[in-house]
Amino acid sequence: MPPQVTVLSTGGTIASTDGEGGATPSKRGAALVDAVPELGEYAEVEVRDVALRPSFDMDFETVAATAHAARDAAVDGADGVVVTHGTDTMEESAYYLDLALDLDVPVVFTGAQRRPNEVSADGPSNLLTAVRAAVDESFTGRGGVYVAFDEQLHAARDATKIHTSDLDAFASPDASPVARFTREGTRLLRKPGSRSASVDAIESSKDVAVVQSYIGADDRQLRSVVEAGADGVVLEGTGLGNATNALGEAAGSLAEDGYPVVVTTRCQGGAVAPVYGSPGGGETLRDRRVIDGSDLPAHKARIKLMLVLESVGDDLAAIRAAFE
């Protein structure tokens, strides 16, 4: 019996066609699979449509529905799950599932930079790579969530979109791809499997805001999101995880009062490190109980904080432990 793969379709460029007012997702999963007959050489494919959304307008209800559908597919006996998704927020959805699911089967996200009706559309090749990864013996039985693009496979925690339009759109800063897929087979570059500890939540109603530090940043944006009812904040700092003194003072004051604040860096590579003093320096932020976001970018730290808050509530020690 051939391996069984479930394809979950959510929309994105891979499913988009031109229309009045611009390109819009319109192709359902069956059409995407039918366009790649080579998939049958690797697996028996079942298709389930979850949504038809552009990923720049993805919402957490749809992401949670995708997580539930992936879990259901695994329970139903799928050897692997592939999710077709727009590239704009693919890394966020993939990381969400990486945190929320603890499956024994791989979940592989993929999509396209070019629509099906454009010259040299990349969706079929990317879908083929994703299915190959989902049934490859290096990944089956191990779980983990990945992004497959341009014949490369990236761990969901590490993957980020690095170019608006190039076909080689994704990279793993500070890490290599997990594997490359060639005509000859799979070239494994590092150990497969998830790098994320699972969080006991698939859905979250928590509101987490992202506030940036930059030259001249004051505390107005931070104060406004807190006053508006945000349950937590990710502070996207500069360099090693620093902020202006005005923003750092406000963030430190909130953290000392038990409010969850996570600091990250806007740098694409490297992790935050407490080195500098003064109200906005990383050393001072740590001393004032701001949580270290390590090497997570702000948009992924936000997703983690949302799910952790849903799981452990306002237990600051537990929130801190989840990020450690």
Automatic annotation (TrEMBL):
Gene3D superfamilies: 3.40.50.40, L-asparaginase, N-terminal domain. Residues 1-16 have a biased composition (Polar residues). InterPro entries: AsnASE_II, Asp/glu_Ase-like_sf, Asparaginase/glutaminase-like, Asparaginase/glutaminase_AS1, Asparaginase/glutaminase_AS2, Asparaginase_C, L-asparaginase_C, L-asparaginase_N. Residues 5-191 form the L-asparaginase N-terminal domain. The active site is at T13, T87. CDD domains: L-asparaginase_II. Coiled coil: none annotated. SMART domains: Asparaginase. GO terms for biological process: asparagine metabolic process. Residues 207-323 form the Asparaginase/glutaminase C-terminal domain. SUPFAM superfamilies: Glutaminase/Asparaginase. Residues 1-26 are annotated as: Disordered. One of its GO terms (molecular function) is asparaginase activity. Keywords: Hydrolase. PANTHER family: 60 KDA LYSOPHOSPHOLIPASE, L-ASPARAGINASE. Belongs to the asparaginase 1 family. This is L-asparaginase. It comes from Haloferax volcanii (strain ATCC 29605 / DSM 3757 / JCM 8879 / NBRC 14742 / NCIMB 2012 / VKM B-1768 / DS2) (Halobacterium volcanii).
